Structures are given as C-alpha cells and as structure tokens.
C-alpha cells in the first residue's frame, strides 16, 4: 500500500457502505451489531432495575459512568497491547471477558441478588472487556480496509451501533416488560457469543515488524508522546472530551426523565431511545455527503447545537412524542460529532501507533462521559432535572464555541505508513538489542545565507524525530567554528534506535534530503553513534567494555 496521498476526490468518493464490500470487515461489523443489540437490551435492563431498586438519582446516573469508566482506566494499556500483540487476540480476550461477566450477572439476577453496587460492579466488569476489545477493533479497521475507506469505516462503526439503537432499547423494554429482567440478561449473554465466534473464525493480514516488541512502559510512553505532539489529535480529543461531558446528560438522565417527567415505563424508555437511534442512523447514512459539503469544524458546531436543542427541549416539555423528536435531533448530533472526532484521530495516526492514539482518545472521552454522568446526576439530585438539562444545553454551546481554541483540522488522507526500510549502520562493538542509551550526533556545515532556512527545517526535524522516539533532542552551534552545527538526540536502547528509523515515512526522508541540500561541506553530514557509559564503580561488568567509537 503506497504511502503517497491520493487526490481529494479519490479519498472522498467512496460511499458510507463501501467498506462492507470487504468480507472480514463485514463479518465482524455485523457480529458487533448483534452484540451491540444485546448490550443495549442489557443497558435498558440495568438502568430500569437500578431505577426500581434505588431511590438515589445519582445511582441511576452512575450506570452510565460504570459502563464508560473502564475505558478511561484501561484504554491506554489496551492500546499498547493492540500495537504490540495480535489485535485479533486482544479482541478475543476482551470479548471473552464480556461473555464471562455477563453470564455471572445473569446467574446472580436469577438467584435474586440485585444489590445496586453489585449491579454497578458487573456493569463495570463487562465494560472492562469492551475497553480491551474496542481499541484493537478500531485499530484493525486500517489493517482490514483500504486507506481511502477509513473515514467511511469509522462512520459505519457509529452508524451500525446507532442503527441497532433504533430497535435495541425498544426491544429491551419489550423483553423486560413481557418476560422479565432475567430474560433480557440471558439474551444479552448469548449475543456476546456471536462476535467471539466471528473473531475466532476470521483472520486478516497485519504488517509485521522485524523488531522485537516494545516493553509496555516504553509503548505507553511513545503513544502518549506521539499524541501530545500531534496538534490534530489533541484538538479532536479535547473537543470529544468536552462534548462527551456536556452531552451525556441526555442519555444518563433519560430514565429519570421517563419516570419522573413523562410518567412512562420501560417501554416508553425504549421507544425514546429508539428515537435517538433513528436520528443517529439518518445522520450516519448522510455522513459522506455532509463531509463533502461542510467542513469538519462546521459539522461539529452543528452537532453541538443539535444536542443542545435536544437537551433544552427535554427540560421544557412533558410529551413523549415531542421528546422522541427532540431525541432524534440529539441522536443526529451525537453520531455526527463522534464520527468527526473519530475520523480525525484515525487519519492522523500511522499504523504503528494507531492503537495507542485511539486508546488515549477513548480514555479521555469516556472519562469525560463518566464525569458528565456524575456531574449531571448530582445536579439533578441536589436541584432538579430541569436545571441539569438546561446546564447541559449551555455547556454544549460552549463546546461549539471551543472551536476557536481547538479547531478540527480538515484532512483528506490518512497519515502515511512508515517505510520500515532501514539498513542499520555497522558498529565496531558487539551491541545487544538492549544496549544503551544510544547517542546520535549529526554534524552540519551551514553558511549564513542558509541559516534561517536550516533552522526552520531543523525545527520540523525535531518534531518528526521526537514523535517517533527520539529523546532529549538538541541543536548546538560551535562557538569557535560558527558554520558547524550539531544535532543530538538519544534513544534508550539500540532496538529503540532501529525502531525510530523504521517509523520514518517517505515525507520524513524527504525532509532529511532538504536539510542535506543546505550542507556546505564537500562530504555529506557526518553521523556519529555512541553509547553512554557509566563512570561509577557500580557499573555493570558488560558495560565496562563498551567504548565510544571514533569517527
């Protein structure tokens, strides 16, 4: 697959449903919808069970928090697993945990154990399985489908879930009302088995690295560092986190709205959730058309306004029909917002780190959703539902205005894949994979007329090398020979030095060539590789034989 960007037209042309032509993506996507159907039924059952056995508004709102908090806690770790191990196996492990936890919850409900904290605990455990599965599944999208289909595939993930949302809650309400809570929990457990079997059956090719796996600490550090250095990913995460915190009041407080404001039961709750899903499906299907005619920032603003209108409408009316229409508008805004920020993170992440960037994205937005569930639940309990919903509407308008500080960047192609082609330089010592730290120095001769251009390129080079693993990057000028400049950076080990060079893209190599063109020497810039050696008496025996090579 070429790392060269295609034209804007080629990238935007595929329809929302184009990725479904790929059999593996289609199979897992369909199986995921079956699982999502069960999860939505289970959410209705758990939310309604909590509303009937607990008098605390906060406990009801915490059902949403218990299902999102694991992603905040575990996603970064799960993302590092997804980038270092088989993403398919990580998905299988996460799905297995969901099946086991759901089966245990079903058994306890059958035995009559319905303590509120027990319900929250198993909801949390099921969500832990999802937290392991989701980053690996999202990261696998780019491995399974063509690069140009990634935006459509990310949109389909939202469309699929929200399509199921149109029938899942209503079906959950019917099952709970007609057959009882135990039937809903049993059916959910069975639906969780479907993607487990599909993942076991499906296999897809993943580009393997010739280098050994990173340690978990290094993998997490590199993922956090790359994310912190990408303004595009940071903007998407910031807007997503704020949007989740502000908008979750709609879903977190909906059981209370149905019970206290609309005077309905589980069937009414399911029907309103279906209205929310209907709006989401319409927006998802139209997403490709919207992306061609409106900028991503404009779509995000419209999504915030739509959700604010939904929240305000729920606060001011007592009609189920009006509430259903408002929730359809809110659902449209919901899927538009999440599709936009999700696509931004996917396209800005190269394959070697995409699991970690997505996991950090999930961790922070789900942390925002969990915090929002607690905030709006507390406001509803201490003041009123109306106050909480009106506060949510006002916060959503502020999120729309936050585009001035954190605008979503328009991108028409994904981050190019690394070349993964690098011939390690010959060294005079027996360097082991874990030998280090490695110090890299590159000397340039730069004339005064090229100085400004050189500094601009080196600023860009610092960014490029630092985000793929270089540490303590510096640029020094020789006081006695002003034309001589030295670039210096470190990597923890020799393997990390090799890994850094394997992560460079074609564009990064072209940057190196542009820097070399400014070099005034007769020979190319001289690179020196050194290994740091401790001078204390406590140094390890094998380190005492390592000497700095001369050049």
Automatic annotation (TrEMBL):
The chain crosses the membrane at residues 59-80, 92-111, 174-200, 236-257, 269-287, 299-316, 322-348, 360-379, 385-406. Keywords: Cell membrane, Membrane, Transmembrane, Transmembrane helix, Transport. InterPro entries: MFS_trans_sf, TM_effector. It is a multi-pass membrane protein. Residues 524-551 are annotated as: Disordered. CDD domains: MFS_MefA_like. It is found in: Cell membrane. Residues 527-538 have a biased composition (Polar residues). It comes from the Bacteria. This is MFS transporter. It comes from Mesorhizobium cantuariense.
